[in-house]
């Protein structure tokens, strides 16, 4: 009974917070749309007050009562769900859907293509479509690999808040890649898995892409805390099938795998607390995201306002939480500089231009992809001034944009 009471109290607290956050975001979005950009920035965006009293407006009152009703419904539903979950949950770790592979679709989702990348040298026959946020570091990693090796592919820009473009799939993250092969559409999820699968396919095209994907099964499991988690096995492994390339050794393969994991587990967590360090930097970053992602072309005005203004404010708050979660220094810039200096010193120690040697490997592409996601932000300019990473970064950029890895595709 005591545990049930504590659980009920926790649910009440969570739902109360949800109610406050929803009311706040709805109010801010409404003002962003009707007041216009300049007035919203100067009057509302940086206000530290809570949601104002809207009782003078009948419409606003109706909105608030509606939100209250939704929140109370969420409270009752969450409480009931938690009760049913605790009744049936086993204290042991449960593995579900062990060995499930990515979905194969008979028909593609119907969304307008945002942009096409055409590389004449692409002879794979794969018709790839990338669902992405332009400046998502994980999407940037995938694009770096696609561009470096010279894949042709279509891009569908996903609205970061509404996400209508990926409602067709149970997987609710980006990047997602669809490959049109043998009359069907092979879905691939998770940036590292996508990269490993495509690199493995380039190494040995005798095994079809659908067969390669089977080496990366997904699993869902409940951990000791009762939280449902998902993972993809072998995501950092390339499937050489015992036929290791001549320019690779077991040591270099292991090192490449370790640095790719470092990019995901360490470097990427430095970005948000730095990019959204202040409200001004957060807004500057989102305006750059809008520009480089051509949001004005792909999204309606109110959608763009929602993403830019509410998104910037939300990420400024979230960035502070991520700083604590990942134990970054009080001066978050110092943590980012330390990570990039560690990368550069490790490369200097082996005396090569790239971590992969004379040419970039997948770890180079991973680190470059992560950093390219902030190239237009204040954070990146500070990074260039306080570290020596600029020479390597722009050399990587030239290799990626010139499709320097096409020789592997044609080989």
UniProtKB/TrEMBL annotation:
Q: Name one GO biological process term.
A: prostaglandin biosynthetic process
GO molecular function per UniProt: prostaglandin-E synthase activity
Question: Glutaredoxin domain: from which residue to which, for each copy?
Answer: 129-178
Gene3D superfamilies from the entry?
Answer: 1.20.1050.10, 6.20.200.30, Glutaredoxin
Q: Which InterPro entries does this entry report, sorted A to Z? A: GLR_AS, Glutaredoxin, Glutathione-S-Trfase_C_sf, Glutathione_S-Trfase, PGES2, PGES2_C, Thioredoxin-like_sf
- In terms of domain of life, where is this protein from? Eukaryota
What are the record's GO terms for cellular component?
mitochondrion
**Key words, A-Z:** Lipid metabolism
Record's PANTHER family? Answer: MICROSOMAL PROSTAGLANDIN E SYNTHASE-2, PROSTAGLANDIN E SYNTHASE 2
Report the sequence similarity comment from the record: Belongs to the GST superfamily.
Q: What does this protein do?
A: Has a glutathione-disulfide oxidoreductase activity in the presence of NADPH and glutathione reductase. Reduces low molecular weight disulfides and proteins.
- Its protein name is Prostaglandin E synthase 2
The taxonomic lineage of its organism, from the top, reads: Eukaryota, Metazoa, Ecdysozoa, Arthropoda, Hexapoda
